[in-house]
Amino acid sequence: MSRKFLLLMEKEQMLINLQKISIISAFAAIVIFAVGTTIAMLVYPDYSFMEQFLSELGVRVTAFFSSGETLIRAPHPEIFNISLIFAGVFLLLFFPSIYSILKPKGYFRKSIQFLIMLSGLTTSCFIICVGIFDAGMFLEPHVISALGLYYCMIITSLLWGIGVISLEKESPYKQSKIWLIDPIASVLAMLIGMINTGLFNLHEFFVQKLTMAFYQKMLAYVFIIVFGYVAIRLLFIIKSKNDQSLEIHSKT
Question: Which residues contact 97 (CB under 8 A, 6 or more apart)?
Fold first, then answer.
């Protein structure tokens, strides 16, 4: 067996290992976010899941506004804020791996997957910014970061739905009919996001049924569930590639 072939095998195995790390980072981000926000809610006396926004869990100082509204300092704001910062950092490691694992063919498919990566990275950065700039000390940067996060979640969800549909039939991601879950989940995340941001005045109907604070949480939870599911699917693809690589290596 030629040295060139062995080097290619080693390079492929190294790429697979890096992809595994990126998938693990996605799971880490989900666990950190879920555990951090849950603990932050539990240690916040009388926190209302339906009426209060997630951002209120990270308010570092009580703030009084000219409108007469008051933001009360959270009992343990850094639980929420640090959770967001770490979750965002781990997601930064995850989104680039989607492109490298799926390896789309054709200009359109490559462009869509590249845009998914960019949108996902931007989403991750806004998550970090929300954790850094709380609504009490840095209201304006916080509002910009939060709105940017919501819109990026909507865009990433839309792009992912389009990206999965456009993947070639022979793509390992579409070897099972369960790939149809992806565009459906993407539409759901988009709808919740549009309600939360007030796009097309959808909130005027839906907020009559439930609160904006509730839809904000649902957007966050649906988004992490969707890409948690994506990470699981990608992990199986990596495992299959790894098994094939090991089989070829054993024969050499």
Answer: 18, 19, 22, 23, 234
